[in-house]
Description:
This protein is an alpha+beta fold. The chain has helices at about 10-35, 40-55, 125-145, 150-165, 265-270, and strands at about 60, 75-80, 80-85, 100-105, 110-120, 170, 175, 185-190, 205-210, 210-215, 220, 230, 235-240, 240-245, 250. It has one domain (about 5-275): Creatine Amidinohydrolase (Alpha-Beta Complex), CATH 3.90.230.10.
Amino acid sequence: MNWRNGVVIKSKMELEAMQEAGRVNALALSAAAAIVRPGVTTAEIDEAAATVLRQHNAEAAFVGVPGVFPYPSTTTICVNDELVHAIPGDRRLIEGDIVSIDCGSIVDGFVGDSALTLPVGQVSSEAERLMEATLGALLVGIEQMREGNQTGDVSFAIQSHVEANGFNVVREYTGHGIGRDMHEDPQVPNHGSPGRGIPLRSGMTIALEPMVLAGAPETVIMPDGWAVASADGRLTAHFEHTVAVTPDGPRVLTALETPLEGIRYNQYFVTRPASEKVGT
Ligand code: MG
Ligand code: MG
């Protein structure tokens, strides 16, 4: 149902379909995350996600997205200063890098979209704090995904958490409505004011994605025309979940049902707001 400003309200059945797309996407992302280590190439990480999508007869939502040329890969994989949209290739991760993996899946016509940032071996304390602050911003944003709130409440929570930790949110790229299309209305920026924006209503599904810079918020597009990096060359991090507003509160569609062993940021994969434990 098209509600207002192009915002699509999903029925209960559509939400179940989105849950399945989200679940498959979480499996792909966790498979990619599981092989992150020094020496692995970003193309190998991409292939780990692509394999899971093939096993589930899912389509890769990012393939063919228009740009300077159609996007060629299942994931975007960003290292250190790279923030979003970097194409996987023969770059080898080294100890001390941080790597952001973003994946999108289409199952039965619905899209799941989620991302996380991981350390490669031992990383700097700034890198650790940046990743923690970015994950924390996602979690406080999810908590605001409730009927009666507005998109500005979500944006404000994310921005406040990031800035309280001494970092900056990106301005040029935003969270977004998601459903049959990867990008639907409304946009949900990572900065904003409480009580502003679009009212949240049950059946809305939004990909929240704090993109955080250790230094100044300005970004640059790299020479390949796809990758976006911090203008000052400092570290960046990115966490994302696809989240539904329900009568019982926020429901994370891109979480896993069972915790994974031995993976960093397990907390990210098993995100379950307290409100989700009741009801269906
Ligand atoms: Mg994404
Ligand atoms: Mg997204």
